Amino acid sequence: MDDVVRVSSVSKSYEPGSIALDGVSLTVGRAEAVAVIGPSGSGKSTLLNLVGGLDRPNSGTVEVAGQDLTRLSETALARFRRDHIGIVFQFFNLLDDLTARDNILLPAQLGHLKKRAAGARADELLEALGIEQRANAYPGQLSGGERQRVAVARALINKPVLLLADEPTGAVDRPTGRYVAELLADIAVAGQTLLLVTHDLDLATRCTTREVVVTDGRVRTAELDVPVQAQQ
Length: 232
Known about the structure:
single chain, six-stranded mixed β-sheet, four-stranded antiparallel β-sheet, 34% helix
């Protein structure tokens, strides 16, 4: 199995004496779904940010799809992230003055997809996620679950090699959280490489086959007991 993510001996600190990550190594294979779990302040979100190219390590290397992110300029890093990495944030990060469809289209418009192809891809995702009737609604008119589905569609529109999800159920109610879990499980089953950060063990069990437990900036790995599967 090819590695989509390869983190090697990565350390990160934000101020002297405060170590967020301490010599962390991690691999994620192609079509693998991995959960990073741990308590608040353990370093799991820092790890996700480094893999997503949103931050840089103090030492070590971070490779995604064979590209060493630590060697890229800020401009090249932003371009690589746009074309190869999709990110689902806890608080959606939708633009309030754009419709659901236009929020989904934004990464494609900034990237290489032609207008017609981008529109077709957006409509495909809206239908697949069951929100085609809300295409022209603005974020303020959407429920939390609908906003998260728009955020997932936006993350997937450029067909990223890697999907990152940062506490994707943290800002929704429990029933909506279960739906989001089912959605991510379906995406993983379809072969999308997924790296998920969560404190929710049930979400990790539903969506992934391997968990990486982060404690005090270090990791240990354990196999989950059940395969990734869409919950009925």
